[in-house]
C-alpha cells in the first residue's frame, strides 16, 4: 500500500498503521479505468437498445403478443435493461466528478438496478423454462394451459417478487458514501448477500438446469421418432408443425440459458470461490482486473439475447425487420 494522508474519515486499520489502502482506480491506473468505463458504457448502451427494441416489438405487433412465450421474453429483456443500467452509473460518473459525495445517489441507482436485474433475470429464465417444459410434456394442451393472459400474469408476479426482494435488500443496506465502490455485495448485509447468492445458485443449478436437461432429452427422443406428416390429415399436420415450432423455440431459450450460465458461472467462480475461499486481496491488480473481465462476460448475456431472438426465432426476426426497416419498405 502507498502511504497517503490520514483523514478523520479513514478506517481504524488506516489510523493504526499510518497507511491508507489504495482504491481500485489507483491500482489499475487512469488509462485502464477510462478504457473500461468507455467499453462498459458502450456495451451497456448497445444491450439496453437491443432489449428495448425487443420490448417494443412485443408491445407493438399482435403476431408476437399472441405467442405466450413472447411476453416472458419481454420480461427477460426488461431484466437485462436493469442489469445494464448499473454499468452506466458508477464507473462512468467517476470520470466526470471529483466529489465522492456526488456519487451517492448514483450508487443507490446502481445497486438497486443491479440487484433487481439479477432477480428478474433468474425468475424470467425460470418462467421460460417452465413454459417450455409444459409445451414438451403437454404439446396438444399447451395453448389452452399457457394463454397470453396467463403468461402476462405470471410475468407480472415474478417481477413483483423481484421488486419486493430488491426493496428489502435496499432497506437493510448501508450505502452511505462512494467509498464502498458502489458494489452491491458491500452495500447489503453479509448474511443477505449469501442468502441472495444461494438463491441464485438453487434456482439456476438445481431447478432450471435439471428441467432443461429433461426438455432436451424429450425433444431429442421426439425428433428421432418424428413421423412423415405428408400423408397426415390437415389437423394432424398443423399439430406436428406446432410441435416443431415449439421445439425450435425451446432451442432458442436453451441458447439464452447457455449464455446466462456462462455469465453467472464466471461471476460465481470469481466472487464465491476465488475471493471468499482463497481469501485473496481484493485490491490487488490481478483480482481487480479479473473482476472487470468477469463483469464484461456476465453482462454479455444482456447484449447477446436480442441477437439470439432475432437469429433463432422467425417471428422475432420478422418483427425486428418490420420495426427497423418499415420506412424503407
Task: Offer a quick outline of the entry.
The protein has 329 residues and is an all-alpha fold. It has helices at 12-17, 24-28, 30-60, 62-65, 68-85, 90-94, 104-137, 142-145, 148-171, 184-187, 190-224, 234-275, 285-312, 314-325.
Question: In terms of topology, how is this protein built?
Answer:
Blueprint lengths: L11 H6 L6 H5 L1 H31 L1 H4 L2 H18 L4 H5 L9 H34 L4 H4 L2 H24 L12 H4 L2 H35 L9 H42 L9 H28 L1 H12 L4
Helix pairs in contact: 3-5, 3-13, 3-14, 5-7, 5-9, 5-13, 7-9, 7-11, 7-12, 11-12, 12-13, 13-14
Number of domains: 1
Query: What do the pLDDT scores average to?
Result: 77
End-to-end distance: 62 Å
The major pleated sheet works out as: none
The proportion of residues forming helix, as a percent range, comes to: over 70%
Q: Helical element count?
A: 14
CATH topology: Rhopdopsin 7-helix transmembrane proteins
Order of helices and strands: HHHHHHHHHHHHHH
Uncertain spans, ≥5 residues at pLDDT below 50? 1-21, 176-180
The beta-strand count equals 0
CATH homologous superfamily designation: Rhodopsin 7-helix transmembrane proteins
CATH architecture assignment name: Up-down Bundle
Task: Decide which structural class fits the backbone.
Answer: mainly alpha
CATH class, named Mainly Alpha
The outline comes out as: globular
Please state the CA-atom Rg, rounded to the nearest Å.
23 Å
Amino acid at each position: 500500500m502507498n502511504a497517503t494522508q490520514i483523514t478523520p474519515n479513514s478506517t481504524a486499520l488506516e489510523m493504526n498503521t499510518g497507511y491508507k489502502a489504495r482504491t481500485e482506480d489507483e491500482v489499475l491506473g487512469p488509462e485502464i479505468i477510462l478504457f473500461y468505463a468507455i467499453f462498459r458504457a458502450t456495451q451497456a448502451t448497445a444491450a439496453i437498445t437491443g432489449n428495448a427494441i425487443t420490448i417494443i416489438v412485443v408491445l407493438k405487433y399482435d403476431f408476437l403478443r399472441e405467442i405466450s412465450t413472447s411476453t416472458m421474453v419481454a420480461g427477460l429483456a426488461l431484466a437485462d435493461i436493469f442489469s445494464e443500467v448499473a454499468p452506466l452509473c458508477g464507473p462512468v460518473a467517476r470520470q466526470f466528478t471529483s466529489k465522492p459525495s456526488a456519487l451517492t445517489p448514483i450508487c443507490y441507482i446502481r445497486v438497486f438496478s443491479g440487484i433487481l436485474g439479477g432477480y428478474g433475470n433468474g425468475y424470467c429464465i425460470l418462467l421460460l423454462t417452465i413454459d417450455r417444459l409444459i409445451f414438451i410434456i403437454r404439446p396438444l394442451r399447451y395453448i389452452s394451459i399457457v394463454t397470453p393472459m396467463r403468461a402476462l400474469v405470471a410475468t407480472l408476479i415474478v417481477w413483483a417478487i423481484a421488486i419486493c426482494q430488491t426493496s428489502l435488500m435496499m432497506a437493510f443496506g448501508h450505502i452511505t458514501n462512494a467509498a464502498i465502490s458502489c458494489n452491491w455485495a458491500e452495500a447489503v448485509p453479509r448474511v443477505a448477500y449469501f442468502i441472495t447468492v444461494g438463491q441464485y445458485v438453487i434456482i439456476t443449478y438445481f431447478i432450471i438446469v435439471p428441467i432443461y436437461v429433461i426438455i432436451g432429452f424429450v425433444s431429442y427422443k421426439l425428433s428421432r421418432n418424428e413421423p412423415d406428416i405428408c400423408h397426415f390429415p390437415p389437423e394432424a399436420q398443423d399439430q406436428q408443425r406446432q410441435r416443431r415450432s415449439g421445439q425450435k423455440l425451446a432451442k432458442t431459450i436453451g441458447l439464452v440459458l447457455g449464455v446466462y450460465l456462462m455469465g453467472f458461472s464466471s461471476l460465481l467462480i470469481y466472487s464465491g470461490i476465488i475471493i471468499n475461499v482463497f481469501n485473496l486481496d481484493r485490491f490487488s491488480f490481478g483480482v481487480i482486473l479479473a473482476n472487470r473481465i468477469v463483469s464484461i462476460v456476465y453482462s454479455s448475456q444482456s447484449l447477446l439475447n436480442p441477437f439470439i431472438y432475432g437469429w433463432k426465432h422467425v417471428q422475432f426476426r420478422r418483427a425486428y425487420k418490420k420495426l427497423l426497416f418499415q420506412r424503407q419498405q
